[in-house]
Design brief:
This protein is an alpha+beta fold. It is 30% helix and 19% strand. The protein has eleven helices and 13 strands.
Amino acid sequence: MKYVSKYKKNPKDPYKRTVFGVGYYGETNKPEIKEYFGENFRTWIRKWENIIKRCAGKADRSKWYKNVFVGETFQSCELFLEWVMKNNFYGKDELKNLDIDKDYYKSNCYDADTCTLIRRKQNVNLTLKEWYQYDNLYFFSKTELAKYFFKEKSIKEVLKKDGSLNNREIDKYIKSLTSVKKIKIIKNEINKDNKIPRFILKPIRSINKCYGYQINKNILGYKNQLDYIIGELKKNPNSRRVITELWNVKELGDMNLQPCVHLTQWSVIGNKLYLEVRQRSCDVALGLVANVFQYSVLHKLVALECGLEPAEIIWNIHNVHIYDRHYDKLIKQVNGETFEPAKIKINNFKSIFDFKPDDIEILDYKYGEKISYEIAI
């Protein structure tokens, strides 16, 4: 059934507080808002209405919200929806599975600085006594951890034949891996600073099996893809197979963010190291400049590690695009004053595997008027 709001908007004044005298809709029909929420648009308006109803109205469960209120930002449905767009680290596909949670920060206020987006299942798991960190991932119950052991590590003993949890075996593996510091057990309790551990929305949880997860996989006897290209460039510099690839077709469905820059190929001619990069999709205003800088640094680090001189980078982009909201600013930028390119210097270099971001020094960097771009999704 299609949801129809019982709270009436005021077409002449969308900023009139028509929801319990507290909430107002604003411009909720902005194209970028409707496009982002898609089929979930009405659902999220209803979520906002329920927040106002609980805190300012006479909801059936209002006794649970006697001391809870709505902050200035969330009093506006327009600003509430825009906040969701900016803070949804899970991606648009998860909109139907997300809720707004104020208890995450132990708050009695619904507002931009006191709430977070959280999956319903994770919201329930916040009440468990302990959580687990393993393989750069978080697990919120023994069951989740056991299934990961079974599926990813092929440890069949942790589950019984009927698929139920073999508590004795999973406890044994947790104890063993905790003793060698491969599993970190995080107690769900208030610490000495009167703070509750909250970590679910860290980036390592948001992209899942993408980027670093793929780079860190064993390959052809090497511990990861970076180790592979270093080893091959040193032992077999004439190879045509010195390639890294992040586009793992088998695991694309497990990536919350599928890679844009996904392939590199490295070639040695004489004493010079050439790098070819392949990018499937590129946002010119924000993505391109960041990606080029990142791979320029990587190019220099690999060359230093292998005793080679960095030569050209060949960059292939399949779909290069400019968002409409960036267009005018980009035109202004490309027609602005130009400068000689800056230089990148790597200090204190010992090994690429001991590299730290602070070792990068940018020399002779000059720029004109500062231009800020909105992140477009």
